[in-house]
Structures are given as structure tokens and as C-alpha cells.
């Protein structure tokens, strides 16, 4: 049992994903069938709850994308529940210290490596042998989104079991006091922080990831990032609807 995203990253490739905040299995199916490497359910800031997540994971699996979840917090119960549901990776917010990283890894791995409780109820329906190899299958992805986390990055990445990290640029910029929320910041300290994360990932054999968009993705690849979310459902829908409406009004207001 191989996680396709993990295999792609181990081969040196880039994994491109989409972000799902709208609690809709239809939206999840559209994204899952579109060809993204992964589709991530946002339980932290999105409108997705457990019942939504179940239907959305099932919908994603109709396509070729791998289901991920950004969980509400670094808490073993919610992490374990999302993995038992069938997600192949968890993105874990606000990992700022080695202790936070140790807790995140422990929640993703069965004993003796971690403390994940055994009970993969839903995922075992289609994969009765899930337990064997589950620790290698699951991607543990702590978020690096504060000045504290950047300062501690080498110690965080010294914790065994981290597959990738995921930079949250909005929280990072706010934490560093270099600007407001957004996917990019031109402040030199922000660029230095990204470089610090990527350099540490290279030293520790961990994949650097980031929340971004299509306009920034080439820059992020040049900076060294290889796990990148490029589409978020809410703003993508807003922009598409707005553009279509503006086009229609232009063609009718003659």
C-alpha cells in the first residue's frame, strides 16, 4: 500500500493540491476527478465537519486525488478520526516547538512509534489490510506558521516521522509583524523565513510545502517548495462567478 503523494515526493516530484472549505461532496468530487495530486478538507477554517468529511472523502476517492485533511488543531482525537475516515495525510496547525512536533507525529503513528488508537473503521472497508503499513502510508505534515516555529525549525525537523511541513503564509506574516494575511509578502524577513524553512527541510530530508496559488507557484518551486496547494474552492468560485457576471453584463449593457 503506497501513498501516491508520498511516492511522488520521494521521487523528487512536486505534489499539487486543492483546498476544500465548502462542505459539499459534489465540490469534492469535481476536485477529486480534476487530476490534483491531493484534495485537502479544511476542518480548521472551512465549514467542513465530520459528517461532511465522510461524504467528501468518498467523493474524492471517485477520482485520482488523494484525500488530505487540515485538522482543527494538534489534538490526537481529531487527527486519529480523520485518518480512520480515510485521509492519507493530515496537515496539523500551529506546530511551534519540538514538543508540538512530537505530539503531531505520535497522533499519526501506531504504537510503538506513536499513540494512535487502533480502529480504522471506515478506511478498512476498502482496505482490510490497512493496519499493516499504515505508518508508512500516512503523511504527517505539521504547519510552520509562526516566527517561533521558524526559529525552532531545525529542532522541529529533528523529530523523527515528519514527512513534510506546510507553511501558512498568512499566519506567518502576521506573527512576524511584516504584514497582513495573504499568500505572499514582499518583506525581506518573510523571504528569509521561507528560505530558512526550505534549507532546514533539505538538511533533514523533509518535503517543504506551502499554501499558495497558480500565480505564485513557479516562484515557490524556484524557492524549493514541492508540496503546494494552488486552488481554494471559495475564492475560485467567487472569481469565476464574478468574471462570468461581468462578461454577461458587458454583453447586455450595450
List keywords for this structure.
254 residues; eight-stranded parallel barrel; alpha/beta; 13 helices
Describe the structure.
The protein is α/β, with parallel strands linked by helices. It is built from 13 helices and 8 strands. The longest helix has 20 residues, at 233-252. The N and C termini lie far apart (59 Å).
Layout of helices and strands, plus pairs?
Blueprint: H1 4-10, E1 15-20, H2 25-34, E2 38-42, H3 50-60, E3 66-70, H4 76-85, E4 89-92, H5 98-108, H6 123-126, H7 134-137, E5 139-144, H8 147-151, H9 153-157, E6 164-167, H10 169-176, H11 188-204, E7 207-211, H12 214-223, E8 227-232, H13 233-252
Parallel strand pairs: 1-2, 1-8, 2-3, 3-4, 4-5, 5-6, 6-7, 7-8
Helix pairs in contact: 2-3, 4-5
Q: What share of residues is helical?
A: 40-55%
Count, helices: 13
Instruction: Estimate the global geometry from the Cα principal axes.
Output: globular
Using only CA atoms, what is the Rg? 18 Å
Structural class: alpha/beta
Question: Average pLDDT, to the nearest integer?
Answer: 97
**Amount of beta strand:** 15-25%
Biggest sheet strand order reads 1-2-3-4-5-6-7-8
Tell how many strands the DSSP assignment holds.
8
Would you list the SSEs in sequence order as H and E? HEHEHEHEHHHEHHEHHEHEH
Contiguous runs where pLDDT drops below 50 for at least 5 residues: none
> For the report, how would you describe the main beta sheet?
8 strands, parallel, barrel
Amino acid at each position: 500500500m503506497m501513498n501516491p503523494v508520498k511516492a511522488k515526493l520521494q521521487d523528487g516530484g512536486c505534489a499539487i493540491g486543492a483546498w476544500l472549505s465548502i462542505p459539499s461532496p459534489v465540490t469534492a468530487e469535481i476536485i477529486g476527478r480534476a487530476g490534483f495530486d491531493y484534495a485537502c478538507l479544511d476542518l480548521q477554517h472551512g465549514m467542513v465537519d465530520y459528517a461532511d468529511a465522510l461524504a467528501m472523502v468518498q467523493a474524492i476517492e471517485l477520482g485520482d486525488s488523494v484525500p488530505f485533511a487540515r485538522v482543527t488543531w494538534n489534538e490526537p482525537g481529531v487527527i486519529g478520526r480523520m485518518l480512520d475516515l480515510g485521509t492519507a495525510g493530515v496537515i496539523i496547525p500551529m506546530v511551534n516547538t519540538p514538543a508540538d512536533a512530537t505530539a503531531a507525529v505520535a497522533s499519526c503513528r501506531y504504537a510503538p512509534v506513536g499513540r494512535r488508537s487502533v480502529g480504522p473503521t471506515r478506511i478498512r472497508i476498502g482496505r482490510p489490510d490497512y493496519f499493516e503499513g499504515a505508518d508508512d502510508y500516512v503523511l504527517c505534515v505539521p504547519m510552520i506558521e509562526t516566527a517561533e516555529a521558524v526559529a525552532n525549525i531545525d529542532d522541529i525537523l529533528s523529530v523523527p516521522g515528519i514527512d513534510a511541513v506546510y507553511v501558512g503564509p498568512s499566519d506567518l506574516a502576521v506573527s512576524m509583524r511584516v504584514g497582513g494575511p495573504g499568500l505572499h509578502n514582499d518583506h525581506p524577513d518573510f523571504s528569509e523565513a521561507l528560505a530558512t524553512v526550505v534549507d532546514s527541510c533539505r538538511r533533514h530530508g523533509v518535503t517543504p510545502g506551502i499554501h499558495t496559488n497558480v500565480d505564485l507557484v513557479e516562484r515557490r518551486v524556484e524557492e524549493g517548495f514541492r508540496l503546494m496547494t494552488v486552488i481554494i474552492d471559495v475564492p475560485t468560485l467567487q472569481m469565476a462567478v464574478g468574471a462570468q457576471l461581468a462578461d454577461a453584463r458587458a454583453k447586455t449593457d450595450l
